[in-house]
Predict the 3D structure of the following.
Amino acid sequence: MEMENHTVVSEFILLGIPNIKGQETILFISFLTFYLCTLLGNLLIFSAILADSCLHTPMYFFLCNLSVVDLGFASISTPKLLVSLWTKSRTISLGGCMSQVFFYHFLACTEGMLCTVMAFDRYVAICHPLRYLIIMNWRVCAILAAGTWISSSFHATILTSLTFTLPYCGPNVVDYYFCDIFPVTKLACADTYVIETVTFTNTGVVPMTCFLLILMSYVRIIYSILKMNSAEGRRKAASTCASHLMVVTLFFGPCAVINTQPQLSKVVATALQISADVVAPMLNPVIYTLRNKEVKRALRKLRGGQMTAR
């Protein structure tokens, strides 16, 4: 009977980034620049890999998948954040909020699993080079890639369904700059124990498992590199892993700090979250481009082809 006295929430209001009064224009220009660079960089990487047959290898196949994830990840919250900074409109529909929750957890889980698969790929390439093409054949690569996308979609579907089967009939102000599970479930007018338990378990177990598998891969990789007799061989092996390690650090670093330091101020926690959501997807293609001669060559080839077509 009490539920009938409340109006069911059909939209939410995002409070946005804290303590930015008077800085909206600067932040709008900065985030727009980051977003456009993210789109351009990842589209270039994706196009270069598709266009150059020399890059049709397992490592670049997974890098292609990572570029797609980064394109989507940057588009979850950034467009809405730009609109709120420019127009001061902070409302988001119930459907829009659900989409943000689903795609955030879907793509975050996919990126973590892709980083794990890429670590396994490097492990096979360095520790078992003679059997690399046999182990990492196209069937295996397709299964690993499809497995990351499909399992991540199940993960996100479960979390989103549990979040939005809760009744929302009271306040609708989300104390964050985008819709995420915990800021949204605080507004539910029902017991949130189940969704909180499932979320803590899933968002804790999945990244921790991925991180441990990556760590195990690199322990074996480092051991194999140290056993190499050739200094040039050690240098090449280390170089192929450096870019991936930087991407792993950018992805897992902010996540680890936010989840293990609950005493962080809201401003610092939001800044770390933005660095993971907005800045990291822009830096990933830069990291792989700066440290990879093959990608640079493919990009020059792509640019040359475009100029010839004109």
Summary: The longest strand covers residues 11-14.
